[in-house]
Amino acid sequence: MVSPWSLSVLLVDDVSLNRDIVARMLSGLGHRAETVPTGSDALERGRQQVFDLVLMDVHMPGLDGLETTRCWRDPAAGLLDPDTPVIALTADGRPVGRTLALQAGMNGCLTKPVGLAQLSGAIDLAISLQLERGIDLAPNPALLRPLLDAADPAVSRGLLAGYARIRVDWRSQERQRLLGSLHALKGCAGQTGMARIQARVERLETRVWQGGWPSRRAIRALGRVIRSVNA
Length: 231
Description:
By secondary structure, the protein is α/β, with parallel strands linked by helices. The protein has helices at residues 16-28, 39-46, 65-73, 95-103, 116-132, 153-171, 175-191, 195-209, 216-230; strands at 5-6, 8-12, 32-36, 53-57, 86-90, 108-111, 138-139. Strands 3-2-4-5-6 form a five-stranded parallel β-sheet, sandwiched between helices. Strands 1-7 form a two-stranded antiparallel sheet. Strand 2, helix 1 (16-28) and strand 3 (32-36) form a beta-alpha-beta unit. The radius of gyration is 26 Å and the shape is elongated.
């Protein structure tokens, strides 16, 4: 679900809880969300900043989502990017609701309650539209997040257990088993974002592959690094 690109998203909804939920979902997917409660506020922000995507509630008091989108598309309205992808948010799942949204100038429609899969699909659509227009997009920082939490006690136990296996294999002079244990620990360190441990294990692994053998000092140094992280 995580896209390689991070979008700047304007979320327009008059219900604060809806804004909070969808904004949290966007943030979790690595996107930057700004929220406003009215269509008028949305147009004002669109005159001040360029967005990659607008998620627009259809049924709002005052200027509703359809009229807001028509204004956004009007070159005379002063929006910095009248062609910004706009996707409707609506509780009306009927085909006529989608038809009205497209007629107003929207690029798609999401039916509430919005799930992660739906939201990801809308983001993918916006990315395609932006790239087709030649818009430069920012890389998604969510892809750089570790897959595992280094603070998780299970991860700490896994690292220490992996180090214990390395010590056993090192003492028994089992080359293939040591390579396997080093490789496993390197993978665990990489998934938790522990670059320092990963680099140190990789150096030991390379030495063994090249026909050498790690010194006692090097093995002990690895243990100190692992214990310092888990302290």
